[in-house]
Write a structure and sequence with these properties.
Layout (H helix, E strand, L loop, with lengths): L3 H4 L1 E4 L2 E5 L2 E4 L1 E4 L3 E8 L17 E4 L3 E10 L3 H8 L6
Antiparallel strand pairs: 1-4, 2-3, 4-5, 5-7, 6-7
Length: 92
Amino acid sequence: MKTDLERTIVEHGPSVGTHHAKPIPAYIITAAGQRSEFDRIAIEDADGQCDMAQLEWLESLIAPGLIYRSNVCDLVLPETTRNNLDTPNWDK
């Protein structure tokens, strides 16, 4: 299970619309480096609740009722990791 820090949104894309008078970011990136793209607005019941059964594999429900889809290959690496991947260390 992910920690609260790993779920923290640290970056988001431009708004692609609004839902419940709040902007809908085109994408979000979490502190864990996972990028998710906006997929759709969740179906709400009469009380405004969203049934989690409507989520599919690699989808997350973000308030206020937005569903984002992750791609396992879209992991955003921290700058220090990217730098280490650029140049292989053949001396080891």
